[in-house]
Write a structure and sequence with these properties.
This protein is an alpha/beta fold and 343 residues long. It is 43% helix and 15% strand. Strand 6, helix 7 and strand 7 form a beta-alpha-beta unit.
Length: 343
Amino acid sequence: FRKKPNVKLISLIAPLILLIFSLTLADAQVNPDLKFFEDKVVNVVVSTKAGGGYDAYGRMLARYLRKYLPKSVVIVRNVPGAGHIIGANEVYLSKPNGLTIGMGNYKGLIFTQIAGLPGIKFDLAKFSWLANVSSEPQILIMGKHTPFKSIKDLKDSSVPVKMGMSGVGSSAYNYTLMVGNALGINFKTIPGLSGSEADMAMLRGEIDGQIGSLDNLRPMVESEGSKVLLVISRRKASLAPEAPMISSFVTPKTKGIIDLMVASAELGRPIPAPPNLPPGRLKVLRDAMEKTFKDPELLAYSEKVKLPISFTSGEDTQKLFVGALNQSPEIVRLVKELTQPEK
């Protein structure tokens, strides 16, 4: 006689067989573009020295991105110089294989590209934009040792107001020249202060102030007594709600340049990859960026260390850059006049 089937044993084994089958099937169906990143090194090229906001965002990205590019290694490489141009060039000219991505002041490079400054080997409209992860105000601050307590004080100054920034062509350099032009302030630019060097120069009294992103300059306001005199954004800065918005200084003559500054401020922390990424690999990276910057652990960490996150998709970031670069001949001429290095 045949033995009766062991129903109890079958009921125990069947789910295991189904699980093994489903895992095998899933492995067979793994996205080949995602699988490409296994055992590969992904380089996050930060276009500043170690320290400062861009470096902090780059290292936060590297820490959590590997979770969504399984079995990959994500490292940060600091490539500073020329107001972020050197790092941007490196990303743009890298192989379009998805293994090089950027973090830096790409919004400042909008002005640099419009002006056609030397050394540029990139076209911001042609980068493969993966995301923008922060849109926050740019602020103008003055050191507590200075006599400048308002925009009127700056305009009435009998001596040039010394402003620090990383380099010619950097966002701070361009904003400083444009704010000076639009508001009628005699700023003296002092480039060559990368990372936290401008903060230290302010504390030593070597410069009067600087323009930068709110999160970068927050410690100078909260801990060192610097005063926020101006906000460049569409929104008030919670750090200094009483500070005037640059839009309050718009005139028919200044509207175009102020609108461009405000639009560029929306692109706080954009993340590019080289042009011409294979479509499948571009989608994998964009999906990974969205998952990374919506990850609860990253969001908790970012709140703890005061690195605010506001996510914009790669597709929308691409549109923002194309729109910002599409300026009238009058604005192009003005940007060129303002941002040409002094001879």
